[in-house]
Amino acid sequence: MFGNKENPFKTKEIFIHLFGWLCLASFPLFISFTIFSEFHPMAFLRVLLPPVLFYVNYAVLAPKLLLKKRIFTYIVTSVLFLIGFEILALNIPTLIPIDQLDLPQDGFLYRMRYVVIGFALTAFFLFGGVVRLIKHIYISDKLSRQNDIRKTRTELEYLKAQLNPHFLFNSLNCIYSLVRDNSKEASNAVIILSELMRYTLYESNQDRVLLSKDIENIKNYVSLQKLRLSNSEKVQLEIKGNYEEQKIAPLIMMTFIENAFKYGTDYDGRTEVHIVIQVIGNHLFFDISNLKGTRNIDKNNSGIGLNNVKGRLNLLYPHAHSLDIDKGDREYSVKLHLTLD
């Protein structure tokens, strides 16, 4: 069912079983020794019966029938086995020449001995099935969680594979604009781009990075955009709070920043982008807004980027984030709240 068979006995489990049975067996043997001042043969023989019942169900019937959903066959086989086994168990004193315990024949225990023995043996048999069922559920749940983790990692790698080229492509466009205009800042931009590429190629492969590194990467990107823009007076980046020890999923804020610069230039060539990153304790508040510019929004490319970051947020911060996107007539704003690890 899950690609590998459950092994009913592992080294650690064997020791646990042995310890449990030794503890259980010590009680009737102690009673026998207390009453007869010696280990009575019948008491010793009876101690061997519960493990046999337990393991017949635990290692044979439950995995072969119950766990394969052959319920009717399991019930019939179990009932027939219990009847046969208990008949054999109750006749052990006559089948094997050993002394019987002397019990008053008019006593309650003597009259109810068959019921008590039958109930006890049935309980051990059922206990074996219950333990095996619990173990099966535990293993199934563990495998399911491992599969979920593998699936999540695969999805994250896919999203990163989309994100990294998208981010680098936008940065290269910025360099191209500077070179095309013969800007003196082109060499500066290449240096900044090398830092952006280093972060994207090496740091972003991790599940979490220091927030200080991610913010430094954002600062570099904003600096690169300012070199490209003819009017960047209203481009503002504000960082608040103590974030030196905090960690975050890399590039989780970058898509919003890219879109703000990409679509935030108005008819007069002005770009107005306001970015505020505030850290309070283990809470990060990211606010970004931009005026809607003259460039028509490419719904396909923009949608891929937003869907990408939404997918990453759902995978990396499933119950630890809130995202509010406001598409106003003149302004586009995003508010993101993260509870950091």
From TrEMBL:
Cellular component aspect of the GO annotation: membrane
Keyword field contains Glycoprotein: no
InterPro entries: Bact_2-comp_sensor_kinase (IPR050640), HATPase_C_sf (IPR036890), Sig_transdc_His_kin_internal (IPR010559)
Entry-linked Gene3D superfamilies: Histidine kinase-like ATPase, C-terminal domain
Positions of the Signal transduction histidine kinase internal region domain: 155-231
Entry's Gene Ontology molecular function annotations: phosphorelay sensor kinase activity
Pfam families: His_kinase
Alphabetical keyword list: Kinase, Membrane, Transferase, Transmembrane, Transmembrane helix
Bilayer-crossing regions: 14-36, 42-60, 72-92, 112-134
Matching PANTHER family: SENSOR HISTIDINE KINASE YPDA
Protein's name according to its UniProt entry: Histidine kinase
Organism from which the protein derives: Flagellimonas taeanensis
